[in-house]
Amino acid sequence: MIVVMRSGCSKADVQNVVKLIQELGLKDHVIEGTDRMVVAAIGDKRHLDMGAIENAPMVDRMVPILAPYKVASREVSPEPSVIPLGQGATVGGKKIAVIAGPCSVESEKQVIEVAQKVKAAGADALRGGAFKPRTNPYDFQGLGEEGLKLLAKARDETGLAVVTELMSIDQVDMVAQYADVLQIGTRNMHNFNLLMAAGKTDRTVLLKRGWSATLSEFLLAAEYIINEGNKNVILCERGIRTHESYVRNTLPLAIIPAIKRESHLPIVIDPSQGTGHSYMVPAMSRAAIAAGADGLIIEVHPDPQHALTDGGQSITPEQFSDLMDSLRQIAPAVDRSV
Ligand code: PEP
Ligand code: MN
Fold this sequence. Notes:
This protein is 31% helix and 19% strand. The protein has helices at residues 11-23, 108-121, 145-158, 172-178, 192-199, 215-226, 255-262, 271-275, 281-290, 317-330, and strands at 2-5, 27-32, 37-42, 59-63, 83-86, 89-91, 97-101, 125-127, 161-165, 181-184, 204-208, 233-237, 267-269, 295-299. The strands form 3 sheets. The protein has an 8-stranded parallel beta barrel, surrounded by 7 helices. A 4-stranded antiparallel β-sheet has the order 2-3-1-4, with helices on one face. The protein starts with a strand and ends in an 8-residue tail after the last helix. 44% of the residues are buried. Bound molecules: phosphoenolpyruvate (PEP) and manganese (II) ion.
């Protein structure tokens, strides 16, 4: 942390800041510039609240030097992490991981049909919500445990790993019993108790970015999981809230190189929630892979027109298969495979 003093500050003001820094157990280093005095606080202060120093007389501002996250950062683990998806599939290596399936599990016929078709097209894992976080309480809320059983059945029939969302701590044990990967949705990224509960399991966690969270908050949420002992975290960008209305969410693909620079954790892109429109999904999937994403999570429904949730953004199995063919051409250009 650098403490920038206001111009005209006295020696006593600087000494006061030096004393406050020393009281926190850090070393100080005073730098006398031509116009300004600055005091560097040396040592890892990430667990300390230095904000109070801003209240000292003649302090202009505090400039952080280190990022607040640790265990999710590249500083701590310089090599990219390869995270298990389950059933032998991984994410974060050379091979791009593709997770596909319906927004919600609706029936046995629907989920088995879509699992078989996405598997045939080359998907690595099956997605599908059994517990759905719906904005409107009168909308379809998911099949609950019955939906989890159908996902497990689809895994038995296809060998695909199962990715499904859990919404509360009391669902952790039940969902972990059926799923390979626990999805924590955008609305729960700040639910620190849920993050810690998922961190106590041995299941990989797919953590979606909160729709108004910064990159830093996103990585700090991942740290809540990792700090409980679960290193297997996959980051997922699913779009953020902006003023735009031609999309459901704005999908910021620039987060891919930013995450690659800041973190060793893999990043997958959700172009379905990220756009809200099926016609945009193939283009944004291709763009994500070209930009260096480690994987995709895509909503695929055998009959989008009759989907109980998110039909407008769901692509058909045939469109998914065509998309996979185009990804097979793009991936080698960025030294990846699908
Ligand atoms: C979903 O994947 O269907 C979903 C509800 O995602 P999000 O949490 O990103 O809205
Ligand atoms: Mn959805």
